[in-house]
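Duplicate of #3305? Posting structure anyway:
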């Protein structure tokens, strides 16, 4: 039997094996679907109800009074802390993400290959991820690293703090904002290394999947290590770099010491649910917009290998 173009007709029906495979596929994504509905979609809808209402708690339960955009107007016109804290969060992303990316790529290049003790060193750089997922990171940051709720005097005296660069203003005439930026980068480097475990693993896997023949051909052509980095390594792992950047942005915005996250937690603990969810929704949309913008810009430079 032939179709109108003269070629053999193609069966449109699915075989029993294809149907069975499709059922197994739905079964495998069922846990994710349940989690997405129960732990994301439902809370998001509930947050939207809170954000447009005034919530009151009494013996009879929770009561909602629709107030429209009043909570959002209060955030931008009355609250004197939200916009500065949001700007601080954005500034942290601007300098933290590039530093994390460069540091993770450097460590991945060092840890690539097989040598004596390579498994131990890889575990060392991933170990902070395990620590940071528990209560230990709370104690470490509050009492050792002196971040979060610690006072300014305490933060200046914590054990990982390095000497201040304030003297550069007098000696070299550097602008104050550049000195503050240098202080924040250097004194926050220990914290940044604790945020690089997942990124190192991702980049390490990407680097190890580059064919050695690519570097061998470059060596024959006389390419330098710098040229091989920018002509082979970076283009080949560019999709993973995009994943690392997006992951680092989200991780920075949801960090324990983030001021906006602190505001959300504080208002929630004070039973001010409508305002905490309002800040949370605005924050979520801001992060979503930034991630989309980064994906749009970086996506033009990503090179995907084709067979």
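Output from current build:
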């Amino acid at each position: 039997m032939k179709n109108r173009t003269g070629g053999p007709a193609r069966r449109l029906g699915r075989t029993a094996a294809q149907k069975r495979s499709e059922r197994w596929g739905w079964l495998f994504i069922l846990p994710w679907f349940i989690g997405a509905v129960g732990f994301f979609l439902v809370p998001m809808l509930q947050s939207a109800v809170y954000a447009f209402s005034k919530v009151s708690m009494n013996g009879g339960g929770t009561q909602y009074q629709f107030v429209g955009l009043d909570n959002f107007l209060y955030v931008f016109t009355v609250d004197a802390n939200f916009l500065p804290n949001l700007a601080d969060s954005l500034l942290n992303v601007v300098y933290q993400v590039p530093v994390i990316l460069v540091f993770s790529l450097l460590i991945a290049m060092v840890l690539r290959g097989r040598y004596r003790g390579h498994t131990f060193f890889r575990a060392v750089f991933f170990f902070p991820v395990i620590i940071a997922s528990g209560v230990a990171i709370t104690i470490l940051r509050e009492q050792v690293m002196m971040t979060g709720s610690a006072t300014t005097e305490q933060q200046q005296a914590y054990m990982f703090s390095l000497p201040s660069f304030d003297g550069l203003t007098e000696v070299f005439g550097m602008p104050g904002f550049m000195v503050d930026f240098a202080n924040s980068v250097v004194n926050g480097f220990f914290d940044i290394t604790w945020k690089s475990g997942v990124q190192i693993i991702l980049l390490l896997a990407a680097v190890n999947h580059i064919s050695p023949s690519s570097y061998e051909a470059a060596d024959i052509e006389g390419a330098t290590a710098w040229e091989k980095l920018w002509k082979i390594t970076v283009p080949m792992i560019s999709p993973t770099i995009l994943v690392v950047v997006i992951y680092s942005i989200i991780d920075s915005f949801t960090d324990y010491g983030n001021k906006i996250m602190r505001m959300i937690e504080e208002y929630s603990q004070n039973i001010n649910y409508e305002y905490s969810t309002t800040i949370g929704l605005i924050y979520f949309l801001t992060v979503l917009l930034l991630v989309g913008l980064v994906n749009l810009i970086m996506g033009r430079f990503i090179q995907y290998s084709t067979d």
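Confirmed duplicate; merging threads. Confidence is low (pLDDT under 50) at residues 146-159. The first strand starts at residue 53 and ends at 58.
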